[in-house]
C-alpha cells in the first residue's frame, strides 16, 4: 500500500539501499548479542566470574535479548496498516524512544561494568562538596538521558522538518501551535512542533548542566581520572 500510494517511483537500487541499511543493523545487533553471550558462557563455565559479577552478566545478557525484542516490536509498528491515515508509514515514536532508551541503558551499564573491573575504585573522603558533585553528576545524567529520548520523538515524528531556524522557531520564540492538540498532554508526545520545542529546551538545559558541572568540578580537588572524565564530558557536549 505504501509503495503504491507514496513510493511508486522508487527504483530497485533505491530500495536495495534502505533494505541493506536495515539488514546491516539487524546483523550488527546479532553480532553484539553473540559478543555478550558467548564470552559470558565461556567465563562462567571456567569459573572466572564472582557471584556479584554473575548477576551483572545475567542482567546484561538479558538486556541484550530485551533490546532485540524491543527492536522487533518497534519495526512491527511501522508495518501495520492504518486505513484512516494518509501519512507516510513510520514506526511508533513511543517504541522508537523505548528502543533508544534501552540501548543507552545497555551501553552505559556495559561501560560501567567494564570500567569497574579494569580500574580500581578511588577511596575519596566523603566531603560535602564531593557529595554535591556526585548529586549534580547524577542529575546531569538524567537530563542528558531525557534529552536523548526526546530526540527519538523528534525522529519518530519527523519533527525536525517543522522549523529549521534557531534560536527562534520561524519568527517566534514560542510557536502558535505549541498546544494545538487536545488534551494538552498529547502535545508533548505527538505534536511535532511541541516535540521539537521540548528537544531544544532540553538540549540547552543539558549543555548548561554539563557546563555547570565542569565549572563546579574545577573547585574541588579530584583524582586525575575523574577530572579527565569531566573535561571529556564538557568537550563532547560542545561538539554535540
Automatic annotation (TrEMBL):
One of its GO terms (cellular component) is mitochondrial inner membrane. It is found in: Membrane. It comes from Todus mexicanus. It is a multi-pass membrane protein. The keyword Metal-binding applies. Pathway: Porphyrin-containing compound metabolism; heme A biosynthesis; heme A from heme O: step 1/1. Keywords: Heme biosynthesis, Iron, Membrane, Metal-binding, Oxidoreductase, Transmembrane, Transmembrane helix. It catalyses: Fe(II)-heme o + 2 A + H2O = Fe(II)-heme a + 2 AH2. It comes from the Eukaryota. GO terms for molecular function: heme A synthase activity; metal ion binding; oxidoreductase activity, acting on NAD(P)H, heme protein as acceptor. This is COX15 protein. The chain crosses the membrane at residues 27-44, 56-75, 95-119, 140-163, 199-217. Its cofactor is heme b. GO terms for biological process: heme A biosynthetic process.
Amino acid at each position: 500500500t505504501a509503495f503504491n500510494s507514496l513510493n511508486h517511483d522508487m527504483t530497485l537500487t533505491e530500495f536495495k539501499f534502505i533494505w541493506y541499511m536495515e539488514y546491516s543493523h539487524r546483523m550488527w545487533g546479532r553480532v553484539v548479542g553473540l559478543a555478550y553471550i558467548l564470552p559470558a558462557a565461556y567465563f562462567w563455565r571456567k569459573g572466572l566470574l564472582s557471584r556479584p559479577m554473575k548477576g551483572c552478566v545475567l542482567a546484561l545478557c538479558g538486556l541484550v535479548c530485551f533490546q532485540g525484542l524491543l527492536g522487533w516490536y518497534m519495526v512491527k509498528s511501522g508495518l501495520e496498516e492504518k486505513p484512516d491515515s494518509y501519512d507516510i508509514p513510520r514506526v511508533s515514536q513511543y517504541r522508537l524512544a523505548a528502543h533508544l532508551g534501552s540501548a543507552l541503558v545497555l551501553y552505559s551499564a556495559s561501560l560501567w561494568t567494564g570500567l569497574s573491573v579494569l580500574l580500581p575504585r578511588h577511596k575519596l573522603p566523603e566531603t560535602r562538596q564531593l557529595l554535591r558533585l556526585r548529586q549534580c553528576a547524577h542529575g546531569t545524567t538524567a537530563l542528558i538521558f531525557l534529552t536523548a529520548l526526546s530526540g527519538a520523538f523528534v525522529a519518530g515524528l519527523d519533527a525536525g522538518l517543522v522549523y529549521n531556524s534557531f534560536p527562534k522557531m520561524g519568527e517566534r520564540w514560542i510557536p502558535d501551535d505549541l498546544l494545538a492538540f487536545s488534551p494538552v498532554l498529547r502535545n508533548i508526545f505527538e505534536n511535532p512542533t511541541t516535540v521539537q520545542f521540548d528537544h531544544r529546551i532540553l538540549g540547552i538545559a543539558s549543555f548548561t548542566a554539563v557546563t555547570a558541572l565542569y565549572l563546579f568540578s574545577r573547585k574541588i580537588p579530584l583524582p586525575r581520572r575523574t577530572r579527565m572524565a569531566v573535561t571529556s564530558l564538557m568537550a563532547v557536549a560542545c561538539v554535540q
